[in-house]
Specification:
The chain is built from 8 helices and 2 strands. By secondary structure, it is mostly helical. The protein folds into 3 domains: 102 residues, no CATH class; 146 residues, no CATH class; 34 residues. The chain has a two-stranded antiparallel sheet with strand order 1-2.
Length: 298
């Protein structure tokens, strides 16, 4: 990863990509499409009311996530790097269109493993690592206070933050499955012998551990697998470039943005003074040469 420079100077606040604006509206369209699809399928009798509320609830939650970066930037005055913002919208589209509309979450391969679902959890591990680094940068007020944090410590913190998000998501899935038998977020129904408990009130399953714990643990494992390469990248980049890795790849708070803007303004002022001094020196040199020429003629 190269540190972005323009005219030899580091650039921390980049202009917004057009592609980011486009994918923002595509993400909104994807969420609306899931809502419309759920209503149409319910009216046709293809899904139950529980599935309807699940799809609509997921879509509303996704819409909140779509507008969250806008709130961060407009109200909180935060800065979100273009690539990270693009990736956030990409995840929402892949979840809504691929997972909910095309039902790719249910596609199975390799002994029943749902590869699309595992791919999304792996990709989430990558994205949330950058949010972990972002939180670390904000908490330590980088770059105003250069605390000299260990790159290894920063990587371990980001991994812990990323896994915390995955853990909270699994709690959310478990909660929904516990509220109603309609939900199958943790895939607990996948290996049931019967859709009803036996005479003793127990669910009978075909595997020793149960499909729910297998789904949960594999989700957390692939999330960790996605997080580890970013941890290695972070250690390498922070050893080479210090805090620039966080400043150019992560979310920056209002205070951090203000400091960087002030720093850039001071740099511009210093460059302007250097330019003025050099121009004065060049003009003086030119006048000196002209005077020498006149004296020689005399």
């Amino acid at each position: 990863m190269k540190i972005v420079t323009v005219d030899g100077r580091k650039q921390y606040i980049a202009k917004k990509w057009v592609a980011t604006t486009v994918i923002f509206y595509v993400a909104i369209a994807a969420c609306v499409a899931v809502i419309i699809s759920a209503i149409v399928r319910f009216c046709m009798g293809k899904i139950l009311s529980g599935d309807l509320f699940h799809d609509i609830g997921m879509s509303i939650g996704a819409l909140v996530m779509v507008f969250l970066p806008l709130v961060m930037k407009k109200w909180w005055k935060w800065y979100i790097p273009n690539l990270l913002e693009f990736a956030m919208y990409f995840i929402i589209i892949m979840n809504m269109l691929g997972g909910e509309v095309l039902h790719l979450f249910n596609a199975q391969a390799f002994s029943g493993m749902r590869l699309y679902d595992k791919f999304m959890h792996t990709f989430n591990g990558v994205i949330f690592m950058f949010f972990g680094y972002s939180v670390l940068g904000m908490m330590n007020n980088i770059p105003e206070k250069n605390s000299g944090l260990s790159p290894l410590f920063c990587a371990l913190f980001a991994i812990a933050f990323s896994m915390l998000i995955e853990y909270v998501w699994e709690i959310y899935e478990y909660t929904l499955d516990s509220i109603s038998d309609v939900f199958n977020m943790q895939r607990w129904k996948d290996d049931l012998v019967s859709l009803l408990p036996n005479e003793n009130g127990y669910w009978e399953i075909t595997t020793r551990r149960g499909s729910a714990i297998v789904d949960t643990m594999t989700d957390m494992i692939v999330h960790l697998i996605g997080s580890l390469p970013i941890a290695v990248l972070g250690v390498i980049q922070m050893k080479r470039h210090g805090n620039d890795f966080i400043l150019q790849t992560c979310v920056l708070s209002k205070k951090q943005v203000a400091y960087l803007q002030k720093f850039n303004a001071e740099q511009d002022g210093a460059d302007a003074k250097e330019t003025d001094v050099s121009q004065v020196a060049e003009e003086a040199a030119a006048d000196g040469q002209a005077d020498c020429g006149e004296k020689a003629q005399c």
